[in-house]
Design brief:
6 helices; elongated
């Protein structure tokens, strides 16, 4: 089973990566936010919406039971969403992660929940890394 310290560290990982991603998004123009990634990969805006939706779905709706309803296809189909809206969604997802990792009791987790909590920071870091790579390809230093 997961320990309280481990959960704190995993939650801190998402917060740290999230803060970096927010700074990156703040440095982008609206055109850069929605430019296709290298090789035609997802725009940075879609990666940010996906990360927000992922956290809010699994942690908000799943663990905290906050009623969030995810639109995963919409996370990838969106184009031209205002940067402020993308940032607000990402901040909301990171806040949900902070609350969820702080609120869960290790002894109350089943194996699937513990595995999910362990995997989410890696998923977040993977896509945040994609966003950073895409920004560098656009000439923006993260």
């Amino acid at each position: 089973m997961a320990s309280t310290l481990l959960l704190q560290k995993l939650g801190a990982q998402i917060a740290t990566e999230g803060d970096r991603l927010i700074k990156l998004l703040e440095a982008l123009t609206p055109e850069q936010l929605w430019a296709p990634g290298p090789g035609g990969s997802n725009p940075i805006g879609n990666l940010a919406l996906h990360l927000a939706g992922n956290l809010r779905h699994f942690l908000g709706a799943g663990l905290l039971k906050d009623g969030y309803v995810r639109d995963r296809p919409g996370e990838f189909a969106a184009r031209g969403v205002a940067k402020e809206t993308v940032l607000a969604n990402l901040r909301a997802g990171i806040e949900v992660a902070r609350r969820a990792y702080a609120a869960v009791q290790p002894d109350a987790l089943d194996d699937a929940q513990a595995e999910l909590l362990a995997r989410l920071p890696a998923h977040f870091a993977y896509h945040a890394g994609q966003a950073s790579y895409a920004a560098r390809a656009l000439g923006v230093k993260p």
